[in-house]
Amino acid sequence: MHETSQPALGATAAGLAGTWAWRLRLALRPMHRASAIALASFLATHLLGHLAGLAGAAAHQSVLETLRLVYRQPLVEGLLLGCVLFQVGSGLTLLWRGRGQRRGGVAWMQAISGGYLALFLLVHVTAVWVGRFQGVDTNLQFAAAGMHTPPWQWFFGPYYFLAVWALGTHVGCALYWNLSEPQSARALAGAMLVGLLLAACLVALLAGGFDGLDLRAAGGFRDAETPTRVLAVMGGGASFG
Ligand code: HEM
């Protein structure tokens, strides 16, 4: 299968799911939740897999290559991209439908974190695919390139930090609505705290803040010019990784 097949498959799957939901007048919220559950297994391994970078760039690369054996199967990746597109589309629709009716802090946290995640997912996945079409290995060095190309660290640091924290917050809000007191408040606070800690850890890792990860050493950036070259390949000197 050619690499363009996965995005095409993903767009078809998301289009069919959306059309099916619309024709059968299915409630969008349960479908948004179902697609989130399907995405969750990828996202959990995706983010926890990045923690392998704590043991160095080579350890991260070997974990990434093992995970790719599963999610880079064309059918799996097509369905993953379908879930991403459906998640973004259904989330933005729910956001729009709920305008003017939101009451209380949790409803607003859910809306704001969801809106940011939709934006992040579109930019992040597009950047990964543009990189792949350009022949770049979209590994940890690719993700970290912006953090090592001043002044882009001021964009990429908050961009990644908010994404991981927004994910924890969004999951926490979903748990809040589906549990009863006092578990609901605890689940929300716990998920936000896990998101916050994971976000801080991953951004510090990308910035090269842990001893294990020297992105400029062999196997990482081969020289000081590498991050700039990755950004240049991504187009016009700026990229969104
Ligand atoms: C510090 C945080 C993050 C980093 C460093 C990061 C990095 C990466 C990298 C390097 C890839 C390419 C993987 C490959 O080539 O096999 C990727 C793909 C992807 N990431 Fe992330 N990511 C982060 C957070 C997130 C978050 C928060 C989400 C979702 C909310 C997310 C969703 C995805 C998706 C859906 C893909 C596409 C998989 C594919 O089509 O092959 N990522 N990410």
UniProtKB/TrEMBL annotation:
Source organism superkingdom: Bacteria
| InterPro entries for this protein | SQR/QFR_C/D (IPR034804)
- Tell me the SUPFAM superfamilies matching this sequence: Fumarate reductase respiratory complex transmembrane subunits (SSF81343)
List where the protein spans the membrane.
Answer: 6-24, 36-59, 79-96, 108-130, 159-179, 191-210
Q: Does the keyword Thylakoid apply?
A: no
Keyword check for Cell inner membrane, yes or no: no
Q: Which UniProt keywords are listed? A: Membrane, Transmembrane, Transmembrane helix
What this protein is called in its record is Uncharacterized protein
Origin species: Acidovorax benzenivorans
Source taxonomy lineage?
A: Bacteria, Pseudomonadati, Pseudomonadota, Betaproteobacteria, Burkholderiales
